[in-house]
Amino acid sequence: MTDSAYALFLDFDGTLVDIAPRPDQVIVPPALPPALARLRSRLGGALAIVTGRPIATIDGFLAPERFDVGGLHGVELRRGSAVAGCEPEAHPALRAGVARLQRAVADLDAVLIEDKGCSVAVHWRLATPTDAERAQTAVEGVARDLGEAYRLQLGKAVGEILPATATKGHAIRSFQQEAPYAGRRAVFLGDDLTDEKAFATVNADGGLSVRVGGGETIATRRLLEPEDVRRVLLAWADGAPIDPEALPRA
């Protein structure tokens, strides 16, 4: 298949960059942003970051480059110059839930609340098992009380509450409704439980899913760690054949 046959969708944490103890401590290799820009050119613009992070945070990590981004699992969407943003004031119940979470874990120094405006993530990667259990119980309780308008998404030592309609799969489908993504085969790379639902969407639409890391998966291909992802993307950016089907099978 030619380069123009693919649309590339990339998760950020644990896929493009290695997981860090705190979300603000991830390290972006200097070669990565310009390589992504070169690869985007090869793909005729059909490259987007699809992440739980806000768009502004991704821009900060990948500066000075700016990419199409599905942020907050699709709550935010930027395609070219068109941006559908997050409006925290439209989520009063969630805002009250954030305040409740902050009170619930205030005495847990190793538990971090990441308030994203239209979603909230509770991280317990650095916490003791007892404190991690408390943090997870707290976020589960808030999510349950918020009802069907929101959903709880559990990942690697994190629980995130977000609007029920926000998924990475929906974000990918939204991108594919318009040029330059329309008519191309979607290729999505992700590493977490949160990405498995997007793998299901991509697989159902005839695309190609790539799991980064170990564990059970419905993805059809696998790379072992972000370093392997970066190696593949750098090679594609610099002229190697863009052939996702040649990646190792999951």
Automatic annotation (TrEMBL):
<dbReference type="InterPro" id="IPR006379">
    <property type="entry name" value="HAD-SF_hydro_IIB"/>
</dbReference>
<dbReference type="InterPro" id="IPR023214">
    <property type="entry name" value="HAD_sf"/>
</dbReference>
<protein>
    <recommendedName>
        <fullName>Trehalose 6-phosphate phosphatase</fullName>
        <ecNumber>3.1.3.12</ecNumber>
    </recommendedName>
</protein>
<comment type="similarity">
    <text>Belongs to the trehalose phosphatase family.</text>
</comment>
<dbReference type="InterPro" id="IPR044651">
    <property type="entry name" value="OTSB-like"/>
</dbReference>
<dbReference type="Pfam" id="PF02358">
    <property type="entry name" value="Trehalose_PPase"/>
</dbReference>
<dbReference type="InterPro" id="IPR003337">
    <property type="entry name" value="Trehalose_PPase"/>
</dbReference>
<dbReference type="InterPro" id="IPR036412">
    <property type="entry name" value="HAD-like_sf"/>
</dbReference>
<keyword id="KW-0479">Metal-binding</keyword>
<comment type="pathway">
    <text>Glycan biosynthesis; trehalose biosynthesis.</text>
</comment>
<comment type="function">
    <text>Removes the phosphate from trehalose 6-phosphate to produce free trehalose.</text>
</comment>
<keyword id="KW-0378">Hydrolase</keyword>
<keyword id="KW-0460">Magnesium</keyword>
